Protein: RCC1-like domain-containing protein
Organism: Drosophila willistoni
Amino acid sequence: MLPTLRASMPLLARSYTTKAKRVVLNQDKSKIKDYNPKISNTHDQRVYVWGFQETGALGLQTNIKKSQERYTEMVHHPTRLQFSTNNEVTDVTAGYGFTAYAVQRSDGETLFGCGLNTDSQLGYQVKKVKSNSPAQDPANLDVIIYPTAIQLPREHGETAEDMQVRSMSAGRAHLVVVTRNGHVFTLGNNSYGQCGRSIIEEERYSKSAIIHRISQVDICGPDDEIVSVECGQDHTMFLTKLGRVYTCGWGADGQTGQGNYHSAGQITLIEGDIKKERIVSLSCSSDCVLALNEHGDCFGWGNSEYGQLDNDPEHAQTQINVPRALTLTKEIGRIRQVASGGSFCMALNDQGLVYTWGYGILGFGPFVEQTSKPQHLLPPLFGRNDFSNATTVVSIGCGVFHMGAINSDGDLFMWGKNRFGHLGLGHKKDQFFPFKTALNGKVTKVAYGVDHTIALCKPYF
């Protein structure tokens, strides 16, 4: 019956008039919403911080009471710094429990810092007193929990453009800044001459307002200029445009390269095997120094207790006080970048391969603690796979106990000791292989502190 009934039913058809069709097809454009994505800030760089928080080095807290609560002791995941959303951060360096930021601002301030200030490494910072409070003698703040301006002394006629930071670096308790107009400013502890001035016996640094100013002409002469500065634990090195290296500070392990093991407040040109070389980069996070010339050859001096600088294992020296050409890196090929930690070294060659050697967590797993020859880490550990076979490492760096590498996609991989959560992996366990750190941006530079990490990133969009 059903087929017969269906056949007898008339066909229903929906018809539209010409006017009705016009109404359906033509939309009211005034009712279509335009979508504009919300942009949090227009600055080129974003700053992410993680690691030990109680020193104030991360600069995340704006309230003293909150900074003293237990849950802020460590930040295990990369966290965006509010300061960078309001300021154009151009460079960053991490010392032992403190951080310095180079910025561009309309008010002319060019340098900010936060964290430990026990040796005035962040300048003389006075606590603001309310107008209705009784008058008190100003006291230098030992801890700064949020980035605060560091007032570099200016001479008459110097502009904010002149005082922009060209290069800066931080040691254990000192900070060195090179400005665009070629002046060097040193702050903090000078017990070993690391600030490039005479050592004063029993000098007090905790309430010091001294910011030592040096013209680059007094260091390298009128025909050269300082292009970068690199601080070790308690010594300082200056690299010039002509590839010369000048040093000062603690030399007990030969890290100043001056041919002795003494401390020196006088900034001195060093020679040795780099005398006729044009050095293009320096690296030192503690007391072992690596240098690279324009041809990709590696040189080293300083502490070599774990064979970092051994050319001859049978007659190895544990302290080397003059720059030496390294033969153990010859098989790596042309080296693009070097990094030196507390007891290990890193190198990146022109093929994008990462090599590590020395003693510590080298990236080869929990059973490899020491190797006297550079060994390379496999490219898949840094993001190379069948879907991204062109990915390679473009930059390396390290702190005293941990290492990091940035690949061509802007991803950061870290490994090593992780007692303070400074690997940014969400825990405090040591990491024995390179592991990707979750960052919401393309990483351009990383500052490796002894217990905290700072990353400069560009937004994806």
About this structure: The CA atoms of residues 163 and 245 lie 23 Å apart. The chain has a mean pLDDT of 89. The first strand starts at residue 46 and ends at 52.
